[in-house]
Amino acid sequence: MRKTLFIIAAMLLCVGSLMAQQVGIEKSEEFDEPEYGWNKLL
Predict the structure, then answer these.
(1) What is the pTM of this model?
(2) Residue 38 carries which DSSP code?
(3) Apex CA 26: angle with CA 40 and CA 15, to 5°?
(4) In the 8-state DSSP scheme, what is residue 34?
(5) Distance, CA of 14 to CA of 8 (rounded, Å)
(6) Taking a C-beta distance cutoff of 8 angstroms, is the pair 33, 41 a contact?
(7) How many CB atoms lie within 10 A of CB 42?
(8) Rounded CA separation 41/5 (Å)
(9) How many degrees, rounded to 5, is the angle at CA 25 between CA 41 and CA 31?
(10) What is the pLDDT of residues 25-35, one digit of tens each?
(11) pLDDT at 37 over 70
């Protein structure tokens, strides 16, 4: 009985952590990417 209760509790904790993530994606405005120098994007 304790073993099945522990397994159910563990499964609920795992599912809860998966549902806690935010799904929305936000995009920023476009910007000029420098091709040379210190400001070059890797």
Answers:
(1) 0.39
(2) T
(3) 115
(4) P
(5) 10
(6) yes
(7) 2
(8) 51
(9) 30
(10) 888 898 887 77
(11) yes
| CA-to-CA separations, 21 to 14, 25, 27, 38, 42, in angstroms, rounded | 12, 12, 18, 35, 28
| Rounded CA separation 19/13 (Å) | 10
CB 34 within 8 A of CB 40: yes
Cα gap 42→28, rounded to integer Å: 18
* Residue owning tokens 């159910």: 8
Helix boundaries (H) for the chain:
2-19
Tell the residue number behind the tokens 């990417």, with chain if given: 33
The amino acid that residue 6 corresponds to is F
